[in-house]
Amino acid sequence: MQPFMTSNLAEVTSVGRRPVFPPPSPPSSGHDRERLACGFGGGKVPVTQGTGAGDQEPDDRAGRSATGDPAEPVRMTAWVHGRVQGVGFRWWTRARALELGLAGRAANRPDGRVEVVAEGRRGACEELLRLLRGPGTPGHVTVVVEQFDAARGDLTGFAEA
């Protein structure tokens, strides 16, 4: 979250020794909305075009096909943030993925994240994503950022890398 910045010091008041800032106004242009829609992965959330000025809303189908068919083959890449290395997280992810019939890998990243790449039915990938965000994971997951793409068909089994 970015700090609130104002050039008008009259807008800032103090309560005790702690300044209180007015709430930020909503973004006024499509450029501002696009900037605010950017996530941890650096990708942009698609924005639907409205009928009038200033009525754009983020598209909740980000990364999904128009059909959203649960049997559609997809490739999901998820970056899992938190305390997820050295706690059995990759092993746990592999077990869940194989139970769901997915192929792919779970790999430690140098920055402390675990990258999960899974390919199979959309419904199974979405279930794995739900499990990654759920309370039963080893370690402590703080956030999961995902991306869905077309299946490539080049993965077999599920590896811990």
What CATH calls the topology of the largest domain is: Alpha-Beta Plaits
Estimated radius of gyration: 20 Å
Give me the secondary-structure category.
Answer: alpha+beta
Give the quaternary arrangement of the chains.
single chain
Order of helices and strands: EEHEEEHEEHEE
Architecture (CATH level 2) name of the largest domain: 2-Layer Sandwich
Give the overall average pLDDT.
73
Overview of the molecule:
With 161 residues, the chain is an alpha+beta fold. The chain folds into two domains: 12-58, no CATH class; 73-160, Alpha-Beta Plaits (2-Layer Sandwich), CATH 3.30.70.100. Helix content is 19%, strand content 30%. It has helices spanning 30-37, 89-99, 122-133; strands at 13-15, 18-20, 47-48, 57-58, 73-83, 103-108, 114-121, 140-150, 158-160. It is globular, with a radius of gyration of 20 Å. The two termini are 32 Å apart. Mean pLDDT is 73; it is low at 1-26 and 28-66.
Main features:
2 domains; disordered N terminus; alpha+beta; five-stranded mixed beta sheet; 161 residues; Alpha-Beta Plaits
How do the strands and helices of this protein lay out in sequence?
Elements: E1 13-15, E2 18-20, H1 30-37, E3 47-48, E4 57-58, E5 73-83, H2 89-99, E6 103-108, E7 114-121, H3 122-133, E8 140-150, E9 158-160
Parallel strand pairs: 6-9
Antiparallel strand pairs: 1-2, 3-4, 5-7, 5-8, 6-7
Structure described in brief:
Helix content is 19%, strand content 30%.
